[in-house]
Amino acid sequence: MRFKYYGPLLAAALLGLVAGAVGMYDRLANGLNPTHLGSYIPWGLWVAFYLFFLGLSAGAFLVNILVYVLNLKTFERIGRLSAFVVLIALVCEVQFILLDLGWLSRGLYQFFLTPSFSSLMTWMFVLFASMLVLYLLKTHALLRGDLTRRANDPESGALRGLYGLLTGGKTAYGPEDAARDDRRVHLLAKISLPVGLLFYGTNGAFFAVLLSRPIWNSALTPLLFIVAALLSGGALIAFLTYVFRQPDPLNPSRLCHSDELCLGLGKVILFLLVVFLGLEALQFFVGYQSGKETVVTSLNLIVGGRDWWVFWVVHVLAGSLIPLLLLTFGGDSPRSVTWACFLIFASFLAVRWNFVLPDLAVYKLEGLDKTFFDPRLRTFYAPSLNEWLVSLWTISTGLLLFVLGVRYLPVITENGGEPHAR
Predict the structure, then answer these.
(1) What 3-state DSSP class applies to 171?
(2) pLDDT in tens, 154-209
(3) Which of 74, 216, 264, 414 has the lowest CB atom count within 10 Å?
(4) What phi and psi values does residue 37 have, to the nearest 5 degrees?
């Protein structure tokens, strides 16, 4: 599919890879030494980005719930796009977490060759691998028909070989093949529902079981993770649905199916946003009511610390209040819904930052800050240039894969994958 953003986005991805390569080389050559991580702040920017992309990967999961649990078949029209987006997000998030682990080989030998099934981190990697396989199979089943047709189309040119490879050399695709792939998609989607809930919940539980981190150590944390993932991922899918909309040439003055889908997703996003803000308010209320010094200090760092603007300006104002107003009073306008969804997912890194850092930035023992003196024995943390460059490189890989996929794969067909508006 040709789209007007292809050139600028491709250029941005390539420039990001070139600039980020400097940081990536430094990271691979010198390990974690170029970072500003330390003994008291072992997790920083990369873990925040991991959680950010973890949420974005939930976009297809949300579509699965709408289609196969709530039986809203209309949303099947964005099944290809949502499944492809979750693959890109999974690729980005696994890069971030492997880079943060130190030795990249740990992701292989420690979690798959010598697993510890009593470790939540092992289950996180097992569930991640399961999600990746499920969505690879699902995306392939969704695209197989168009891939087969492109493999047999002389106009595909040099890409015919690639399309033929992706279809396994298949030369024909009939109604029986379409019905078989449809059954596969339904089956894989139903399997992915419990796997996805376990995947997002386990990531929350990994933080919740840490007794020394009072904000994380809560039964509310896994639920917050699930709702946050659905909110940010769903907002991304709604935004992309509008960006790649195809106006109906027969009825240009009325809403096309993409606009209708965007409005439908907007109602779901509004509900999730209200639920998430309610859960977040409960977290603050219970934390302050507990009166525990470590909890109150961590919460004070969020609302009034050095990075107070991340919470009040980026999260509360730009990522919550403005979208809430747009979705409430402009919910019948696709453009308003799109802007609201863009603000939600674009600002969601602030939520992840305020989750990861404040609970680490509090000394757990009185006087500990006066006992040992070393830059890596401090709770003050600001990402190094290397951390930002590596993040740029990782995000650029995801952007490049997305742009090339949308351009050369039938993720979105020329008519948007939709019939004309009724």
Answers:
(1) coil
(2) 888 888 888 888 888 777 888 898 899 888 888 888 888 899 889 988 988 888 88
(3) 414
(4) -75, 160
Q: At what angle do helices 220-243 and 348-360 cross, to 10 degrees?
A: 150
Statement: residue 312 has pLDDT above 90: yes
Give me the residue label for tokens 């979690």. Answer: 111
Tokens describing residue 147: 């891939």
SS3 70: coil
The DSSP output letter for 110 is I
C-alpha to C-alpha distance for 336 and 267, rounded to whole angstroms: 12
Q: Side chain identity at 359, as an amino acid letter?
A: D
pLDDT at 249 over 60: no
Classify domain 6-363+379-408 at the CATH class level: mainly alpha
Which stretches of 291-333 are DSSP H helices?
Answer: 293-304, 308-309, 322-329
SS3 state of residue 323: helix
- Cβ proximity of 163 and 155 under 8 Å: no
Of 203, 206, 210, 209, nearest to 229 (Cα)? 203
Q: Which pLDDT value is given to residue 421? A: 33
Spell out the residues 6+ positions from residue 205 whose beta carbon is closer than 8 angstroms to its own. 120, 221, 222
Mean pLDDT of the 330-338 span: 90
- The predicted model scores a pTM of 0.90
Cα-to-chain-centroid distance, residue 90: 7
Cα separation, 135 vs 189, whole angstroms: 9
**270-287 pLDDT, tens digit each:** 999 999 999 999 999 988
- Rounded Cα–Cα distance for residues 174 and 20 (Å): 45
Interacting residues of 118 by C-beta distance below 8 A, sequence separation 6+: none
